[in-house]
Amino acid sequence: MSATVSLAATATATAASTASGTPGFLSPTGVEILFLLVGLLTLGAAITAVTTRQLVHAALWLVVALGGIAVEYLLLSAEFIAWVQVLIYVGAVVVLLLFGLMLTRAPIGRSPDADSGNRPVALAVAVTAAAVLVTVVVDAFRTTWIDLENGAPQGTTDVTGRILFQHWVLPFEALSVLLLAALVGAIVLSRRGDGRNGTGAADGGER
Amino acid sequence: MHLAYPAVLAVLLFCTGLYGVLARRNAILVLMSVELMLNAVNLNLVAFDVWLRDTLHAGQALTLFTITIAAAEIGIGLAIVLLVYRNRGTSHIDRLRELAETGGTGGTDGTGRPAETDGPTVADATDNPADTRLTRGEATA
User: Fold this and answer.
1) Domains and CATH numbers, chain B
2) Cα(B6)–Cα(A74) distance, rounded to whole angstroms?
């Protein structure tokens, strides 16, 4: 694998100046093979998550899909975002979704009405969108090469923290206000109307 | 690494989420599909940021912001879904047709506050399957 990586490094050195010298798809590097395999796993898990009839299994397949996307971030050398993805999505969002499924008394086994009646229309729309977008994207970025080996590291915690607190600090603080607003909104939505301490307050506390 | 690999993967994940949003009936599964679509966009942002070698790393910063907004969205969305479940007794989005213009046969007037109902009440039991195809788009929107 190191031979192919060094080969790719020499190839990308020439590819930096001209776009015609990019390596082809028939000799993928080790990173590309790993990306492809994890991508297939991610895509399969995502498709299973949107098609399975068992609601809890859908949430668990979503864990696999989101974890696969975190591995893809690692392969793209964005390691801070990969760990944020693991922490927030796999750790928090999926747990919230499971809580939601539990609190709405979702059936545990196979539920026959998980998909609505416009499933063929949805399939047609999704397949059409996928065909059009894949055609356009492949045609546009066929010869574009991401240089992962050379140059400074791009996605480490050092780099991300530096740019986040130097250049993006105002949006960052605005985002904290947004999170506070979302927190207050979720509490207000999930408590009962006129100040009674019913089950609604208990639901809000659990969330 | 070719940029086509993450771009195509992001496209396919986005279309998977699109199918889930359109085809699922449970509101929580719709929220899951929205998360898939947001993740596809995040993958695109990271890939293009790494490709362009942006000095400000706008793609990675925007990815972090998107993740935060998605977390806020899932919190508010689940709170709304739970509130709807408590008031209407269902979380199926094609049963929520209170605001539909044609064939809206809901039992309540749609303005019932949560304080007026004590428990989960199935308000919209008179479900007409012929009308759900027409009004489902408004329910999801």
Assistant:
1) 4-140 (1.10.287.3510)
2) 12
A71 lies within 8 A of chain B by CB: no
- Check B46 against A155: CB less than 8 A apart: yes
SS3 content of chain B, % helix, strand, coil (to 5): 65, 5, 30
What tokens appear for B103 in the block?
Answer: 């064939």
Digit-coded pLDDT (tens) for A117-154: 889 999 999 999 999 999 999 999 988 888 888 777 78
Q: Which chain B residues in 75-94 lie under 8 Å from chain A, judged by CB atoms?
A: 75-76, 78-83, 85-86, 91-94
A3: closest CA of chain B, how far (Å): 15
Question: Could you identify the residue written with the tokens 């070698």?
Answer: B53
In tens, the pLDDT along A51-98 reads 999 989 999 999 999 999 999 999 999 999 999 999 999 889 999 999
ipTM over 0.90: no
